[in-house]
Write a structure and sequence with these properties.
The structure is a homohexamer. The first copy, chain A, is an alpha/beta fold and about 290 residues long. Helix content of chain A is about 40%, strand content about 20%. Chain A folds into two domains: about 120 residues, Alpha-Beta Complex (Aldehyde Oxidoreductase, domain 3); about 140 residues, Aldolase class I (TIM Barrel, Alpha-Beta Barrel), CATH 3.20.20.70. Chains A and B meet through helix 1, helix 2, helix 4, strand 7 and helix 6 of A and helix 1, helix 2, helix 4, strand 7 and helix 6 of B.
Chain lengths: ~290, ~290, ~290, ~290, ~290, ~290
Amino acid sequence: MAPPATLPARSSWLPAVERALAEDLGSGDVTTRAVLPEDRRVEAVIEAREPLVVCGQEVAAAAFGLLGGVEVEALRGDGERAAAGEALCALSGSAHAILAGERTALNLLARCSSVATWTRRFVDAVAGTGVAIVDTRKTLPGWRSLEKYAVATGGGVNHRSGLYDAMLVKDNHIAAAGGVTAAVKAARAAAPAHLWVQVEVESERQAEEALAAGADSLLLDNRSLAELAALAARFREHCVLEASGGVGLANVRAVAETGVHRISIGALTHSAPHVDVALEVAAWPGASR
Amino acid sequence: MAPPATLPARSSWLPAVERALAEDLGSGDVTTRAVLPEDRRVEAVIEAREPLVVCGQEVAAAAFGLLGGVEVEALRGDGERAAAGEALCALSGSAHAILAGERTALNLLARCSSVATWTRRFVDAVAGTGVAIVDTRKTLPGWRSLEKYAVATGGGVNHRSGLYDAMLVKDNHIAAAGGVTAAVKAARAAAPAHLWVQVEVESERQAEEALAAGADSLLLDNRSLAELAALAARFREHCVLEASGGVGLANVRAVAETGVHRISIGALTHSAPHVDVALEVAAWPGASR
Amino acid sequence: MAPPATLPARSSWLPAVERALAEDLGSGDVTTRAVLPEDRRVEAVIEAREPLVVCGQEVAAAAFGLLGGVEVEALRGDGERAAAGEALCALSGSAHAILAGERTALNLLARCSSVATWTRRFVDAVAGTGVAIVDTRKTLPGWRSLEKYAVATGGGVNHRSGLYDAMLVKDNHIAAAGGVTAAVKAARAAAPAHLWVQVEVESERQAEEALAAGADSLLLDNRSLAELAALAARFREHCVLEASGGVGLANVRAVAETGVHRISIGALTHSAPHVDVALEVAAWPGASR
Amino acid sequence: MAPPATLPARSSWLPAVERALAEDLGSGDVTTRAVLPEDRRVEAVIEAREPLVVCGQEVAAAAFGLLGGVEVEALRGDGERAAAGEALCALSGSAHAILAGERTALNLLARCSSVATWTRRFVDAVAGTGVAIVDTRKTLPGWRSLEKYAVATGGGVNHRSGLYDAMLVKDNHIAAAGGVTAAVKAARAAAPAHLWVQVEVESERQAEEALAAGADSLLLDNRSLAELAALAARFREHCVLEASGGVGLANVRAVAETGVHRISIGALTHSAPHVDVALEVAAWPGASR
Amino acid sequence: MAPPATLPARSSWLPAVERALAEDLGSGDVTTRAVLPEDRRVEAVIEAREPLVVCGQEVAAAAFGLLGGVEVEALRGDGERAAAGEALCALSGSAHAILAGERTALNLLARCSSVATWTRRFVDAVAGTGVAIVDTRKTLPGWRSLEKYAVATGGGVNHRSGLYDAMLVKDNHIAAAGGVTAAVKAARAAAPAHLWVQVEVESERQAEEALAAGADSLLLDNRSLAELAALAARFREHCVLEASGGVGLANVRAVAETGVHRISIGALTHSAPHVDVALEVAAWPGASR
Amino acid sequence: MAPPATLPARSSWLPAVERALAEDLGSGDVTTRAVLPEDRRVEAVIEAREPLVVCGQEVAAAAFGLLGGVEVEALRGDGERAAAGEALCALSGSAHAILAGERTALNLLARCSSVATWTRRFVDAVAGTGVAIVDTRKTLPGWRSLEKYAVATGGGVNHRSGLYDAMLVKDNHIAAAGGVTAAVKAARAAAPAHLWVQVEVESERQAEEALAAGADSLLLDNRSLAELAALAARFREHCVLEASGGVGLANVRAVAETGVHRISIGALTHSAPHVDVALEVAAWPGASR
């Protein structure tokens, strides 16, 4: 079972929200300034326009927090499912701030929820197999930690954060080093004890070499179901086996049933279908203009 | 015809490339450091794995530029089409830098090319109608200007950059102001002469009011083909008509044929299908380890 | 009539206030630290030393806000006139913070008020003509948005924010393109619908060409009153006419009476006479040292 | 005689040039992009439109340096005088970069040269007296070090950089401490040996107290010529005497002749009359469009 | 007697605390997230593990402040002595925040207290002589102002902050200028009145030259006790004498008794022995898991 | 054997060098500006004043690189030993830049070399035992990655970079969770496969529990030699054993001989004795002043 997802530290993503707000606001929301008095207040909700797994509530709320003068009440927590039409959060306060932050907040909430919702589809597809659905580094530039949070929110498991917190000896490393054994031995020798060494292998022979040289895990990229099953039968007791490559909703369960421990899927982040969320005004209190 | 796309000033997107690189690199590419000597050189290409419209060559190259020691030669310019398997650029130089920058460069190139490729699909679908395919503010937070460049690269036309460089009087503004006339007059009065005033209208009556109050353009959101055709017949000589809402590849030509001048489509950016690009090593020159 | 001025978003100018404070404070106010105990409190006012139009109250207050421990009460709002000797705001709290922030706050308030006061002089000079007084890009580097706010506070109208939010085809563009028609057609073709195209013209012939090629506005730079009147008579119904060049208080009304719609004046920002504001201590409560 | 002016370290002002460029460029120079091909080249000069003391050549050049593709040749060094019409520097290279950087470079050069030119007027006015013309902290927020450089370029002498690098015991400090002696003794006790202690005094009695308590210099603010002469006669051998307050070109020599050592003048920076500089295109080489 | 130490402005060191926190936290405290529920609370103290002079309480507290949800009560003020085992501050609040900020806060507090404690040893060693113990620029990169604060907290006196706020004519300057007189005259001529000019001299002859040329202070580097005594006898009435070089606890009093006014010691900052501080949990209130 | 140390990516530490330079330079090196002409050149070396392990050559050189106009030739590579008096690098170029960057470069080089030299002492002390000397998170705030590089340069092995790249279940986690088993199971469940889980244990019983619950490594903090030997005998085949607490040069070999795999030592970074490096001018070429 996947661990509960934990939102990265606020300080790690708040500057990105500031930048997002800044690129949309520039010198200001000229329309709202022209049309509404500065002290105008509004009540609104952000609602799901289709079924989704909620993700990014605090991040979206932060857009309003940066603008000030808005109260945000979350009605659905990250990780909960929402039906089409359900309200995800309630906003009240400065109409200037709410209209100025609307698009930034929606873009953030939609992106996080899209990844969480899509991940949940894969997780549900392998339900009962005990196989973990794992992300990759194919994330939107600048949003790595938040997208990994969205994967976890959808029930997925996070692979390494980047090039620095685990070793992954890939085909190019092996070619450069002149073979699996040389590459993995070099990796193992250089790796402080706490660093995981995963090795991409293309055959049983390479898998044997990798394990003999000290690999903690094998990455089986673009293998057929038959190959995966054979490798799993032979090695699943000896290390963590991860399948990847060409995995979609249609075949993920079949891959899971080969006996690998986890399946990493770039599409979790690079191809999550957009889920639509929208802001609806509920009331214009004290409308007196 | 759309104007030629121009890449935003380097200084406007380079920090984002730096952040993207930093989130992937952290304290460094531990695997490559362990396995390859620092002076190892490599030659590689980045190639298309499926047909696409190339976009983001300079941005991707900048990732290697920031790392240093890599020569990048673009083989296809932004806006050109590439077939599956075609090389988009050639890399040579430090293997450490090329492997460290690989994922960041690919993520950037794939994202830009995805939006350009998807936009091109829509542009081709309305070929001959003279209707412009226009983007929205539904972009990935922090990448607005680059995504707008990708839309232009795909033959689309850019709508306003953000809340600051054009007025768009939307349903909520109209509700707050107590009507189209009041809202548009307030907008027009406050708008310096150089600011465009576009108004979202839901009926012929609202359209009349908006034009009378000084609107430069009408946004016709979620109107049926019949409504669009009626509004276009009546108003297309008097202002710029823009349709939006629920437009996909299946119906975009029908919308274009109603007589509107442009069609804005959030899906250009929020739902562009991922196109796959990959780095392939061509040679390990002077392999002497 | 000019729209009400709206202060740019706090996040857009607060870093500049921080930098201003940092350059003055460096490692700290060594004198105040040496002479006053840390818990000393003071009450003071900032007052006008000459008649002025108040501008920048929130910006100046932010300097104290960044230091903390000071309450600032605005006694005159931005845009109001103040006589010599009138108090603009009242301060109370930490003497360390008030003395440390004094010069930065005064410099900010004086600068904004100088521009607002100077602009108001020009606006008053054309009162009744309906002509707008417009700023230029000749602003102090780094303070563009705040100076444009000061112009608006003084009753002026803002021209484009920068090179990005409107097109201005100038003499150099025309020379490079080989003529007005070529330049303006290229601009018009490339301009998304929402971008205003203004063209600098030197003759009736150029004006005709520009309008035929699609200009929204003509900039008439350094034209005589007679030329302006002739151009206005012919074109003022067809586009927005803007005069500029060599306009001062002495001749601004004459220019306005030629029939142009607006007059842009670099001196609003580059030559606004300094208005003096000063901090006066009102009381040293609980002086017990 | 004033020491030669030295431009502050590039790293200390380059970020401010970047910000200035960014606020003008935003997402780019839309006009130039539309009208000129990217590879178009141009030759131009920046020239003085009125007599001035040149200042800020490197700073202005840095704007083009940040854009790239422009060669800048300085024709007059900082501190040299230029007549109206004289060329200050020659530019050649990318027309896109030169037109995009033009306004930022001109704004920087004009501001620095304005302060240098104005300072030179004061310095010339006291020629032969040996009295130094000194700046204050009444500088444009964020440009302190560059404006101090401009003062030095005009032949002035810099006062402290900020609140941190010298002590200035002012009237409010004295009031808070309960007298000159108490304030100056506290300052002297706290001041590390290398910190100068200047004291603002209003009478001979206060001057005596200040010197007895260890002041290095006396600031004589808003004193009449007679008072200044009396104080100078008595104290000029014992410490550095600085006059300030209400000093203009009309009376600066009279103040200098009272016998004080230096005169500090806020107007050097807050009221320097704008000097006009402009970019003129010299040639469009290889115009082939 | 040394002046009371004053903590530099919060804005000057808070970004460094943010960076320190960021480098430790990265994408988050994975252990605490996994093991403790988010709403778990804890009470703890930070205590001295050995006798020390407390320094850096606000700086350490800021680490928790940045994380949020923690109340910090200082039990010993900066500058107070604490015995081994004494609690320095009490923490209560979010266990996630307290455990995440623990190491950063301890590293900050230990570093500041180490310098203060070590400085106090030197200050005590010269007690009664009236000689000041002065720091140097041999500080940890990036922590200059905070280390100078720690020196002051330990009873030391701060030398110049950097290369900018006092002149120190060193051996290399003298060699380059061709002699003491030439170097010091150039320095004196260029120095605004408020800048102190200290000169490093190696002989009585050089000392005479330096004073004749206008030095405010002499730096006597690596002189024997006999040389120091001779120079002090001759020059201590005429300028500030500062000894430096090879001074440790063993000989500092002997140096002080030569008659110099102050002794500068790089070891105050570069060799302060680490003092140990640690966080101890006092209670897990409401432990209900 | 420890892997070769690799300097972190330049972009990760260059901003810290910039900040270090900025805090020393402020508005500039006033002395050098006054005394030396701007075009003066100098040749110099940086030399060891005592035996040391060189570390930080590129970092120190970067200080000069940021100033410009200096050529730096490394004479000893990082990790090499140097005797007292040996030149570590040769500098030639602008005297202004070399004197301005001197202290920053020396502070950086001294700090890195101090940690490398001190680490080497510990590594040599356990030579032949196969035990790794490991660092901790007790590093100077803001310099974590560079200090870890210095440890590696001295032959040490890096522990986790921060709280994010490995789990370390400490006494407080165990107390909060109600026992070793609960804490470690929670950690193991939440840890993605690539995250190492180390557990601090105080007894054989706790060690058993930790291993049963899935620990990869045991941290034995403040255990006696006898306890370490007993634990090593029992568990060294089953997991990585790390000793810590109270380890100095005097006892590190004895600890190593108990059979643990690694010893982590906070003193590597918090108590590395300062090694002295200094800049010596070799020649003043073309001295013509």
